[in-house]
Structures are given as structure tokens and as C-alpha cells.
Amino acid sequence: MKIAVCISQVPDTTTKVKVGGNGKSIDPAGVTYIINPYDEFAVEEALKLKEKNGGETVVISVGRDGVKETIRKAFAMGIDKGILVKTDNELDSYSVARNLADVLKEINPDIIFFGKQSVDYDDSQVSTLTAEFLGLRSVSVVVDLKIEGSTVTAEREIEGGKEIVTSSLPVVISAQKGLNNPRYPNLKGIMQAKSKPIEEKQPSFTDNKTEVISMRLPHGKSKGKIIGTDATAVPELVRLLREEAKVI
Amino acid sequence: MSTNYKGVDYFNLDELLSEEEKMIRETTRDFVNSEVLPIIEHHNQAMTFPKELIPKMAEIGLFGPTLPEQYGGIGINNVAYGLMMIELERGDSGLRSFASVQSALCMYPIFAFGNEEQKMKWLPPMARAEKIGCFGLTEPDYGSNPGGMITNAQKCDGGYVLNGAKMWITNSPIADVAIVWAKLDGVVNGFLVEREFKGFGTPEMKGKLSLRASITGEITLQDVFVPEENLLPGVQGLKGPLSCLNQARYGIAWGVLGAAMECYATALEYSLSRIQFDVPIASFQMTQEKLVWMLNEITKGQLMCYHLGRMKDNGTMKHQHVSMAKRNNCEIALTICRMAREILGANGILDEYPVMRHANNLESVKTYEGTHEMHTLIIGEDITGIPAFRVS
Q1: Most buried pick, A1, B90, B169, B314, via CB within 10 A?
Q2: Which range of residues forms the domain containing residue A48?
């Protein structure tokens, strides 16, 4: 079974990001990068599938040379090989998906996993766009997955409930938290990661369909106010919630 | 502490580390954040070891990882091993002690002094933690002076008969095998004493106010028959057990920095959020002085360990170097934990924060595996040529 996982490198979720001098992207200074947390569920599901059915796992990513570090994290978890479409340009979701689709066409996997979204730009577009470019079935926001023969049964999160859908291989799956518990990279995997191959490719498509014209941080929270410390403050609190904050 | 903890690295010392070394640290840190920190205080209060973590630790590869692959190891270098110890001890000294005993005090002597059959029989299952080991050297009346041990072995048909008692043995109540050091014709030898051997007992020691999330016991040996094939053939004399202690002390020198880092990070965060006289207490010069001292000592301790690890890897490390690192880092780590307690004021004594637990643990760590005083005298002997602990 050929299993592909598309992963993305994102700033550590605990990093305090700053907008860079150009006003259009974040300042990379002092930012530590990690594997997109939703992609860890995708990697884990791919590894589980390989353990059950055999085959080969490959991760694919689009980005700077530094993304190799994230690919090696996937190697340490157990992924077999990697492909990096190397570019220093900021590509939008459309371009990333086009590049991924071009790589995936050559590999022709039985199943392709994505995280449901990357936690940096939060577009949630790349998995479905890629499926569309490949003309493949796609199931998104999956919290449970069963594959019997070529039949795929997936449980999806929907507003206020769950939905069960069936499809068949080959298919694109985007992973939601709850799908599995990603394993810790073990020491053996970490030591083997260096010897696993990362193939570099040039981007096949760089014609972005959207352009970031500005980026800014949200307004800071206004300072809290202590009205009193016992029950006598309640009437004033109610008045302020009603008249100033207008929340009741 | 929150799982937002990113380590302490004021001097950009990460530049001295390889990608693998950093990854090994991260994976151990993730494990500690997710699996250890949420439960450790409960075990500390209940005086139990979190046994449920043992298989997970083995799966990550935390036992005997510096050993070659054919013996169940992974062949990581000593710097990576040290970084791992920092992260484990950031969780709890009891957890790090468990790993130290399994790897440095049990797997190491089997690897270094065992024959091929012993290595193949014990090391792979110990790496998988299917077999737990303990190390019996200290006796009720012989701590810093292990050469005076009373435990003895007598040759008999097909093996040896062991008699004696050991005390302060980490993991003995749950161990499948004990490396027991005993005198055979007056010379210290190592024996693999298995759980089911008749006359072997491991009563648990109760009432500890330190290292509570770690199991400590005695070893009692009453006419225990140990077959010939369970004698460690590769070493005679005190250098056997002392070389094991040297491995364990190496891990301690690193590990205690983890406890210190956790307390420093907790104190820093607390000092920025605790308001007194309308300002965070971090605004006060006396608090800043404490925080800076802590960070300064952690940084010096890191530098000492990083170089110690490189020396261990290239074969130039002397046991006196390990003594200096163990001595210094235990001392500063304990002081840092106590300072953190002071910054946290009354909150510092609550189990809501990790500082009192770490401070209490380090009271033991400072004296086990060679007391502060013994390490002073080991270094003193090295630089003066005079062994002050052999006064008579």
C-alpha cells in the first residue's frame, strides 16, 4: 500500500509572533517551527495503516530548506521517505495544492492524508484543493477511519454531531484531533531519521491566486477593572455589564 | 508548570547540540509534559512509583540507550543521554532515579563486566523493561565506605552462597534481578541475584520524606545460592561498583539541572504574576537577584555538563570530572529549588507547584551516589595527592 502524508511546518503554537518589516508576513526571528499539530494525526494514521497493511509511507511538504527538520520529525515517528518541494517564496493554498498534486500524480498513492488545516494560516483549503486537482474523492475533518479492502468508512465531525460516510480508495483524508494519539518519536526512530532520504523538487507552479496585502496583530485586551471584592459590588457590576460592556 | 515550557537556554547553548540530540530532548520533554507532570504529584503524595509509565519509557527507548544495538540499545551519545536525564528529572528525581538504576547501575555492569551469555540474557529484556534491575552496594553500616561491606559470598558446589544485607536500594521491591556486590575471599565481586532465588528478600523502606515517587527497599540475603553462571566475570574489587556509580553520577550531574530549570521557570512565571504593593514581585531587586543567580548557575551547570558529555564520548573524562559536576550541580540545584520556594512564599509549600517536591527530592540526590563531602574529597585527593578520607 502506498501511503502519502502532506505535512506543513508552522510556528510553534506557543510562540509570540510579530509582524515582519514588510507588514505582510511574520518576522521569523526567534520563531521555533514545529510540525503542524493536525498533521501529526495524519502521520500517526499513516503509520498505523502501514503497520496493519504493510507498504510504504512518504511525507511531502512545500517550503523552505528548513522544512527538512519537520520532515525528519515525521521520519523519527516512523515515516519512510520524504519529498520537499523547495521554495523560498510564500505560496498560497492554491499554489501549494497544485504543487502537491503534481508530486502526488507521480507517486500515485492509495491514500493521502492531510491535517484538517495548518494552524498558521488556517485556510483549511489545501486537502480539498489537492483532491480536486487529482480528481480524487475527499473526506475532511475525520475523527475515525476504517479501511476494509478498498472500502473506506470515515466518521466526520459536524456541527453538534457525527456523520459516517463511506468512500473507496484512492481517497484524500484530512485528520481532525481525536483520530488517534500520535506516538512520541522514539530514540531509535530519531537516530534513523538522518539516513532516510529527502528528495528535493523544484516547484512546478508558483502563480498565486491570492496576495497578502497586509498582516496585523489583533488589538490587545483592554485592562480589567476591579469593582469590589464582596457582594456589595454586585449591583455596580450588573450596571457596568449592562451599560458599558453591553453583554447582558 | 505549563506545557509551554521551552527549556532554559540563556546562552544559546543549543548551538552546541546536534539535531538528533535536540530531538531526543524534545521527545523526552513531550513525554514528561503529557504523561508525567499530570500524575507525579499524586504519586509523590501516595508514595508510589508510576509503574504504568515503565512500558512507555521503554517504547521511547529510555533504558540503556547508549548501549550497542545488539544488546537492545540504540547507540546514542552521552550528551543526548544527559539531555534526556534533564527532562526526566524535570518531571521528578524519582523518575530519573528509576532510569539511572536500570541503565547506569544495572545494564552498564552487565554490559561492561558480563560474559556474552549474560549480556544476551539480560540486556535486551532490560531495555524493553520486561526485566527490572536494582543495584546492591550500600549496607546499613557501610555507605561512603563501601569497601567495608559485610555481605559475603562463599564458594560451593556449582556456585556461591551469599549472606548479608543491603540498604537504600532503589527499585529493589520491584526488581527481577539484583546486581549484588559481595566479598568472595575478601575481594568484592558482582553477582546477578534473581528474584526467585531462595533466601532473597526485598522489604520496602517506608517513611521517606524525599524521593517519595520512587520505590526504595532493602536486600536481605540468607544463604542464597547463586549459580556459577551468575557471577560477573569481568571485574574484581571495588572498581566494579565504583565504575557503575560513575555512570550514574554522570546522569545525576545532568538530571538535577532539570529540577533546577523547572523551579526557575516556575519562580520566574510566578514572580511576574504575583502582585504585591501594586506591582509584580519580579519588580523587586531582591527577587531579580534570586532569579539571575538561578539562571546564572543553571547556565554554568549546563556548560559543565555539555563538555563533560563530549569528554565522555571521546574518552578523556576522568571520574574526578564527574565528581565535580555531580557535586556542583546537586548543590546549585538544591539551592535553586529552595530559592524558588522563597519567591513563591507560602504558595511554594503547596503541591500545586513543583518546587517543594523537587527541593525535597534533591535533599536525597545531593547525598546519594557519593555525598557532597565525598566528592569534595575525591577532587581534593586528585589535586593534592592526599586521600583525606583515609585518615587512619
Answers
A1: B90
A2: 2-201
The number of distinct structural domains making up chain B is: 3
The residue of chain A with its CA nearest to that of B3 is A14
Residue B8 lies in a domain: no
pLDDT digits (tens, 9 = 90+) for A180-238: 999 999 999 999 998 999 999 999 999 999 999 999 888 877 778 888 888 989 998 99
Q: How many domains does chain A have?
A: 1
Contact A148, A40 (CB under 8 A): no
Nearest by CB to A69, which of B19, B30, B80? B19
Q: Do B4 and A14 touch (CB under 8 A)?
A: yes
- Range of the structural domain that residue B207 is part of: 133-230
Q: Rounded distance, CA B172 to CA B192, Å?
A: 13
Work out the minimum CA distance from A170 to partner chain B, whole angstroms.
Answer: 32
Same domain (yes/no): B22, B122: yes
pLDDT digits (tens, 9 = 90+) for B73-86: 999 999 999 999 99
Nearest residue on chain B to A191, alpha-carbon basis: B20
Residues 22-81 of B with CB under 8 A from A: 23-24, 27, 30-31, 59-62, 65, 74-76, 80
A191: contact with B, CB 8 A cutoff: yes
What sign does the CA torsion over B150, B216, B301, A194 have? positive
- A contacts of B75 (beta carbons < 8 Å): 191
In a domain, A206, yes or no: no
Interface size A-B, in CB pairs within 8 Å, comes to 43
Peptide bond into A170 cis (omega under 30): yes
Answer whether A190 sits within 8 Å of B75, measured CB to CB. Answer: no
Q: What SS3 string covers chain A? A: CEEEEECCEEECCCCCCCECCCCCCECCCCCCEEECHHHHHHHHHHHHHHHHHCCEEEEEEEECCCHHHHHHHHHHHCCCEEEEEECCCCCCHHHHHHHHHHHHHHHCCCEEEEECCCCCCCCCCHHHHHHHHHCCEEEEEEEEEEEECCEEEEEEEECCEEEEEEEECCEEEEECCCCCCCCCCCHHHHHHHCCCCEEEECCCCCCCCCCCCCCCCCCCCCCCCCCCCCHHHHHHHHHHHHHCCCCC
Taking the C-alpha atoms of residue A184 and residue A180, their distance in angstroms, rounded to an integer, is: 12
Residues in chain A within 8 Å Cβ distance of B80: 187
Q: What percent of chain A has pLDDT over 70?
A: 100
CATH number of the structural domain spanning residue B310: 1.20.140.10
pLDDT averages per 10-residue partition of chain B, 392 residues = 76 95 96 96 96 96 96 97 98 97 97 98 98 97 94 97 98 98 97 98 96 97 98 96 96 98 97 97 98 98 98 98 98 98 97 97 96 96 92 63
Which pTM value belongs to this model? Answer: 0.90
Active site residues of B: 369
Cα of first residue to Cα of last residue in chain B, in angstroms, is 50
